[in-house]
Amino acid sequence: MANENIHRPLMLPVYLPAVMLGVSAQAILILLPLYVIEVGGSLAAASTAVGCRGLGMMAFDIPAGMLAARYGDKLVMLFAVVLIGSAQFAYTLTDNVTLICLIAFVNGAGSSSFLLGRMSYITSVCAADARGRVIAMLAGSMRGAALVGPLAGAAIVELAGFDTAFIVAACTAALGFVAIASTAIHEQPIVRDLRLRSMITLIVEYRRAFSTAGVAAIVFMLLRSARTVLIPLTGAALAVDVGTIGLIVSASATIDVALFYPAGLIMDKYGRRSTAVPSSALLAISVAAMALAVGVKSLLAVALLAGVANGLSTGIVMTLGTDLAPADRRSEFLGMWRLLTDFGTAAGPMAIGMVVAVAPIGTACLTIAALGAAGSYTIFRYVEETGVSRAGTR
Fold this sequence. Notes:
Layout: H1 3-7, H2 11-38, H3 43-71, H4 73-90, H5 97-125, H6 128-160, H7 162-183, H8 196-205, H9 207-237, H10 242-270, H11 273-289, H12 296-312, H13 316-324, H14 330-356, H15 361-382
């Protein structure tokens, strides 16, 4: 099948919403901690707010998977976009740190539901032999959003303030809702027993996948979320202004964008481990190097190194999940998969928050790097190949 025929049906229901929601989500990732600091919160409070967003994602992973199995992927994505847009607008209504953390929780719940619905939708409508290219394209669009989002968000804050930036983010969610509602296919879901007991049975049945590849997914998301938080917090600790921090984050994202397609080619040709092992190790090294940053130039250098590492890992988490998901229990499996990855997303900022409450930001960098190094070894030692060795059976 030609590439254009693979991608054309997904342009409006998948790729366009991914870009619009991705730009606003990436902007929020740096604006949220900086906004908490702006209204008088500490570095620990700023990191905790980002962690609350991760907790919201964890809380809704399994419910979103069960809802997708009962009501369909499209309805879950629409529900999720409503939550995201509402939360982004709600940031403008308060400067209370506790309320901001609660709003961040709702924001995370919407993000989790949207990502789950999108993963399940792609797995449903795409043939297995086209899924790798589709995920690579999606990952590339997300990298592009990571390039534009922080820069645009920082620019809007500099010109018009945080409230305007949050309102613009909510407007992009509204546009994403329209695109999904008008173009996504609504497939009749398979209604089955979706009680907690069925989820426990699923976990037991696929415990090997969750305890090996699932750990790999946790490590990647922990390192990624920590990297995203540590760059702006380190910049703030070094007295770097918001606009410059946005430029640094976007420069890092530029490397991400440049490497997304080569990373996909390597995964398809040499297997998932060929990018999983080196990228996880390089991510850990780049996080450790943040402890050595002393100014704009050194912070930029470390951010670029992190961009290389993250670019090499493009699509690995989503690809592992869709490789392993059983056809007859796709949504529930991906719900559990999202729970594991979102645990990593929440663990990174929460760990940073606990460390910076009692120690300098450099200590937080080294702590996260140590966790990442241990996780990288786990990937090298225990995660089996799901790509090349299984190509003949998929």
